[in-house]
Amino acid sequence: MTSRKLGLYALISPGADPRVHTLELELTASKLVRIAAGSEDDAIEATLSWLARGRVHLIELGDGWSHQGVARLCAAVGRSSIVTARWFPPSPVRDRIPAPVRRANVFFCTTPNVCARLDTPSDLIWFVGINGPDQGVEMCRRLVEEQGIQVLELCSDWGFEGAARVQDAVGPDVPVGLSLHQALDAGRRAATLYVPAPFSTKDRTSQRAPDGDRMPGRLASCAVKWDPRKMRARKDSRHGRASEPGASQLPPA
Fold first, then answer.
1. What is the chain's Cα-based Rg?
2. How confident is the model at residue 4 (pLDDT cuts 50, 70, 90)?
3. Helices 40-53, 67-77: crossing angle, 10 deg rounding
């Protein structure tokens, strides 16, 4: 088994089959596996199948997961992997986008020009690696303008400040989701999510999620408080030696 880090992304996409709709990306220091499944049961089964092959360092849950589904996966995974789940601010646009949805998952990495696409019956999904928030904001704008991206998903490294910059760049009609980390305390019976509502550099006030959005048990996307100083220091240390922004090639529409 390779010693390189393995990251797994799982999206719920109606009509998708993880045996067919799986994409593997080889990066400089890690390998990324992107899975689309038609149901949470299929996604959990596929995730556990990868765990059985060896250590998965990070499991990122994309759009389509319910709170209960996230809870079930976290319980099945235990402490063997870090789990994050995507959270979207309330949006009147997101639920009205007809299939296939053109979505992009934009994540931080130091490997230049990472870009691939995975098509399912319900989604056309771009996976784009960028080396920092400055290049990333411009890339998100290009994805929306040149590829007609309708939904953006950001990795947890972006933080609320980065997500706000992206939302301002692409406008309010493109939903922007951010990955948030699971609660570290396995004994918690309920978790509270602190989020900006909506993502905007003009309004960064945090609010308590409504009771209906609380996630019982040991769940992803909870107990998050944003400290911009810590976030900035962490990003600087991780991405200070990243390659210079390049002209990443986007896949054809």
1. 17
2. confident
3. 20
pLDDT value for 251: 53
pTM exceeding 0.90: no
| 244 in a structural domain | no
Domain contains 251: no
Residue 198 is which amino acid? P
Q: What is the mean pLDDT of the chain?
A: 77
| Residue 177 within a domain | yes
> What long-range pairs does 184-190 form, CB within 8 A, spacing at least 24?
184/223, 185/218, 185/223, 186/79, 186/218, 188/217, 188/218, 188/223, 189/216, 189/217, 190/214, 190/215, 190/216
pLDDT of residue 249: 56
Quick: pLDDT tens for 175-199: 999 998 753 333 333 333 333 344 5
Which parts of the chain are beta strand (E)?
A: 5-12, 22-26, 30-37, 58-61, 82-87, 101-108, 114-119, 123-130, 151-154, 176-181, 190-191, 194-196, 206-208, 215-216
Domain tally, the chain: 1
Smallest CA-to-CA distance from 71 within 92, 40, 102 is with: 40
pLDDT band at 52 (very low <50, low <70, confident <90, very high): very high
Dihedral (CA of 185, 215, 79, 178) sign: negative
Instruction: State the average pLDDT over residues 36-52.
Output: 97
Look up the domain containing 110 and give its range.
Answer: 5-239
Query: Sheet harboring 30-37: ordered strands across?
Result: 22-26, 30-37, 5-12, 58-61, 82-87, 176-181, 151-154, 101-108, 123-130, 114-119
